[in-house]
Amino acid sequence: MTLPFDRLPGTAAERHATLRDYFCDKDACVKRTTGGWELTLGWPNDAARHVDPKLSAGLAWWGEGLERSDMALSMRRSGRILSTLYDSWTLLSWSEWLERAGLQAAPIVVLHVDDHRDLGAPRLFVEQAGWRDPMTGHLVDLAQPNSVASAIRSGAIGMGSFLTPFLHAFPTTEVRHLCQPPKAVDTRDFRVELTEEQDTLLDPGALRPAVDLVPVARETGPGRYRITPDLGDWLQGIGPGPILLHIDMDYFNNRYDGDSDWLDRRRKLDPSLASVLDKVDALADALHGARLASRLEDVVIAYSPGFFPSEYWQAADERLRAAFARLDVR
């Protein structure tokens, strides 16, 4: 892929910042050629890029002889539960569920357990034929899981943007977002407004799907988004219909938040392992108490290297598996 010279800043530092901001999960390198900037994308393998100093131990537990550059593509399924390192694969799991279940008459409920909203604009261009992945040139359709998988591998759909295309495809979806302080300190409700925003790099002016959250009074239901730290408010009054559960482990502990300066941050979500395990049990108890476990059609657990501490992965996984077994979610 080649970009015109005027698409990128003049200095190497500014170019690096622009590319990092645009591509997020992937490393982007450019080389000056006679025709413009030659762009190359790849999954990062640099230890410093992943910020967690104990990541090697987590990868050893995960297995498969995984290198850092392989993390973005690694996942495994057991029944209704998909385990993955990068949570971008959540959208593929939902796409596969849609292929099995078909379109639903009742609004879908997404239980989003995460320290982030994941409502960024994916690198997909809105065209008459549908969404186009500018990295591959292929169309992306949630009814075709292979097209979703391709867009995740290319980096068109990333960790912070996988929820946006789903809400565009299913605008009556209700999102219940469970999030801890400091990012969520009380219960707030929003109306999901589907919008578009202009691309800034690959095709300036091309439109990308986006989402705005418009504050509303205490109100839930189809097309609404509730964010809360309270388990009771999280599951209060959920209506009929299929439920998709997404758990990003950084909900329980987001020590690093993908930030190389994490040591200098004063306010960070960094509880002990014992507290993390207690929160896992509380989450399972809330689902059981609300009698929602039997309605969970699909569950994704993302371990989020560079966010959730890797030395907690094994113990948290064991506690989660035990919790889902008690809930008869397999």
Summarize the structure.
This protein has 330 residues and is an alpha/beta fold. It is 26% helix and 25% strand.
Structurally, how many domains make up the residues? 2
Q: Spans of 5+ residues with little confidence (pLDDT < 50)?
A: none
What is the H-and-E element order? EHEEHEEHEEEEHHEEEEHEHEH
Straight-line N-to-C gap: 43 Å
**SS class:** alpha/beta
Beta percentage is: 15-25%
What would your notes on this structure say?
The protein is of the alpha/beta class. It folds into 2 domains: 1-42, no CATH class; 52-326, no CATH class. It is built from 8 helices and 15 strands. The protein has helices at 12-23, 55-62, 90-101, 145-154, 163-169, 231-235, 273-289, 313-326; strands at 2-3, 27-33, 36-42, 75-78, 81-84, 109-113, 125-127, 130-132, 139-140, 174-178, 188-198, 207-216, 224-228, 243-248, 296-302. The strands form 3 sheets. A 9-stranded mixed beta sheet has the order 4-5-15-14-6-10-13-11-12. It has a 3-stranded antiparallel beta sheet with strand order 1-3-2, with helices on one face. α3 (90-101) runs antiparallel to α4 (145-154). The model has no long low-confidence stretch (mean pLDDT 96).
Structural key phrases:
single chain, 330 residues, alpha/beta, 9-stranded mixed sheet, 3-stranded antiparallel sheet, 8 helices
Please write out the topology.
Elements: E1 2-3, H1 12-23, E2 27-33, E3 36-42, H2 55-62, E4 75-78, E5 81-84, H3 90-101, E6 109-113, E7 125-127, E8 130-132, E9 139-140, H4 145-154, H5 163-169, E10 174-178, E11 188-198, E12 207-216, E13 224-228, H6 231-235, E14 243-248, H7 273-289, E15 296-302, H8 313-326
Parallel strand pairs: 5-15, 6-10, 6-14, 10-13, 14-15
Antiparallel strand pairs: 1-3, 2-3, 4-5, 7-8, 8-9, 11-12, 11-13
Helix pairs in contact: 3-4, 7-8
